[in-house]
Fold this sequence. Notes:
Helix content: 25-40%
Number of helices: 7
Radius of gyration: 39 Å
Amino acid sequence: xxxxxxxxxxxNLKLVLLALADxxxxxxxxxxxxxxxxxxxxxxxxxxxxxLKALRDRGILEAVGSSVGGRGHATQYQIHPxxxxxxxxxxxxxxxxxxxxxxxxxxxxxxSSVVKGAVGRVFSQSILIESSEPSxxxxxSSGAPAQKQPSHLAFSGQHLFITERQDRLxxxxxxxxDRSREYARADSWLEANPSRRPKKLYQFTDNWFRRIQSxxxxxxxxxxQRHDGNLKVAGFAN
Length: 238
């Protein structure tokens, strides 16, 4: 009964129908017990009874009586593969998915040689190129690697890192501030206060610069007073 293979059926129904076909003759007649079908397919007896009923409801399987007669004997079945839906004809043609525009270019793979100025993850014998811009790895005082920082830095301290772009923005916003000296002071403060180190370094630096009074204004600003008060509480100012 090779015609069973060509039927379009759910996996559980097809598995049981193949087990029935394994017991059938050329005309599709068979009489295996429910227990034997359950053993072959891996289902329980109750599950097997439900699957057999589903096959009978589809008209593919017909119970024609007992093989020897009497209660407790195996039921004789007739398989009707011609009443089932057929699978689509098999083809060896490969179906490629359509290319989607606007989803970015394909990633380029190169051999596992050293690529100058490239940062990538090594997969077996190839390197997946992610960026051509070099970077540097900063290590904490404990020796553990910290976040990778871009190489184009205007200031690189122990805990404070300012890019050239951020430095230009700060220079435009606070032209009266000696940025190099304040960068060093802020980095020293971060070293002395490990529990208060911020995650957003640029925002921290911007707030640091805001406390520095402009020469055109008189008296300390509110932000400067608050910052000085925090330093006094921490014991870093008199």
